[in-house]
Amino acid sequence: MAIESPTQLSAVLPGNGAEAAAILEEPYEAINIRNFEKVPQIQGISEELREDIRVVAQVLPFKSNRYVMDHLIDWDRVPEDPMFRLTFPQRDMLDPEHYERMAALLASGADNAEIRAAANEIRLTLNPHPAGQLEHNVPMLNGKPLQGMQHKYRETVLFFPSQGQTCHAYCTFCFRWPQFVGMEGLKFAMREGELLRDYVEEHPEISDILFTGGDPLIMKTRILRGYIEPLLEPGRAPNISTIRIGSKALAYWPHRLISDDDAEELLDLFRRVVDSGRQLAMMSHFNHPVEVEAPPALEAIRVLRETGTQIRTQTPLLRHINDDPDALARMWRLQAQTGCIPYYLFVARDTGAKRYFELPLWRCWEIFREAYSKVSGVARTVRGPSMSATPGKVQVLGVSEAAGEQVMVLRMLQGRNPDWVGRPFFAKYSETASWLDELEPAFGESEFFYDQELNELLGEGGSPWSRDEFALPLVGGG
After folding, report:
1. How many CA atoms lie within 13 A of 132 on its CB side?
2. Does the pLDDT at position 183 exceed 60?
3. Using CA atoms, how far apart are residues 436 and 442, in angstroms rounded to an integer?
């Protein structure tokens, strides 16, 4: 049940109402490679674990905060605790040879430039931009690439505000980890809200804008307003019916909506979007039920829903974190109970620390199916397991037998060509495949139904929605 007021937190937190309310007023404090060893909880873990954090954090981004450490991590269970693994680098997130290389450099006292050069070499082996994000998803306006945007699917454009390219804490699985490591040419970011508006007005097929990052809610409200308000001007961008914000704030810093100094200003901005007649959807990332069960998160969900904002939730399926049908079902049930809409269960993307989190696709499907069977219909809005791959979002529907062959049944939930959406197709069964490009077509076929057209599209820049036959007519928005 959502918390009705800060004083009601005393019903679910130890101590009196004053102590409970104080939790909502805690200041934000970032924890990173420079200060993590000063935190009392870290001083209680082994030197071996601390060394692992030091080494891996040279390659993969590391940032946590005191809310996560004080309220979400069970330090009695470290290092097995899921939230610890979700926010603190682990040794096995790097190949052994990469780990040893970085450890040796640190032990030898190598200078920062040498360490950074080695880290960048390793990063380039980790598929920093999966699914053609850098090569095939960047749109053009007036003949110029818009490097802070992606337009892969006809109806939806992604926008990366330059001031939103960090987060309140980093997830160790994050597929957008290149945004945080400072490598030139690997970062999406854009400042101009007017360019975004101009682009969507040039493309009437676009109905949805997704503000993403990083995390747009890391920005102060006055900055976020500068991106959103141009879309709300009378008569402008009439095709935009939905504004989405991709954020982990409800899980990692719910205070952003309940006690930050501009929290009420942020809620007012959200009310303005809703009052404009557009839908505002918070695409919230929850990876484990403890993130939803935390009383500050429940309070943040409550006040956010009061603005008229819709909350949709998503997570990848992660070994060591949430590869447990009971945990997933518990999370989806609570989300549905609090008015959130379970939306996607993804397959861990083929980037970064994937080796630590990945599961075979057949196992992803088994976990999803068992968890799905444990919830009522109101939580069965969740779709998965889904791969955000180069051709589109591909769902694993299951393992079956057809024409005497064991096969994996798949379908497109989204596609570079909208005509691919909803089409079922088949791959040979694989015990080991954990991503689409590791699968082979079934029944002796040489390619999947979309392969030939996909190759043509990628050769043309990967933008099928720019073709006349894929366009939609302009519809009323605003």
Report:
1. 22
2. no
3. 13
263: left (phi over 0), alpha (psi -120 to 50) or beta: alpha
Q: Which two tokens stand for residue 13?
A: 């937190």
- Residues 333/322, Cβ–Cβ less than 8 Å: no
What six digits make up the tokens of 360?
A: 């075979």
Type of residue numbered 319 = R
Tell me the chain's radius of gyration from C-alpha atoms.
Answer: 22
pLDDT in tens, 111-144: 999 999 999 899 888 777 664 555 578 888 888 8
Instruction: Please give the pLDDT value at position 66.
Output: 96
Q: What is the distance, to the nearest Å, from the Cα of residue 33 to the centroid of all Cα atoms in its chain?
A: 23
CA distances 51 to 21, 159, 195, 223, 449, Å, are 36, 37, 45, 38, 48
3-class DSSP state for residue 113? helix
Average pLDDT, the chain: 88
pLDDT band with cut points at 50, 70 and 90 for residue 351: confident
Label residue 57 left, alpha or beta by phi (over 0 means left) and psi (-120 to 50 means alpha). Answer: alpha
Cβ(416)–Cβ(457) below 8 Å: yes
CA dist 37 → 31, 47, 90 (Å): 9, 10, 15
CB 227 within 8 A of CB 161: yes
What are the tokens at 241? 């019916």
The single-letter DSSP state of residue 441 is B
SS3 category, 219: coil
Rounded to whole angstroms, how far apart are CA atoms 140 and 145? Answer: 4
- Rounded distance between C-alpha atoms, residue 39 and residue 295, angstroms: 23
Give the span between the Cα atoms of 134 and 322, in whole angstroms. Answer: 29
Pick the range with the lowest mean pLDDT from 120-134, 138-152, 239-253, 300-314: 120-134
CA distance 230 to 270: 14
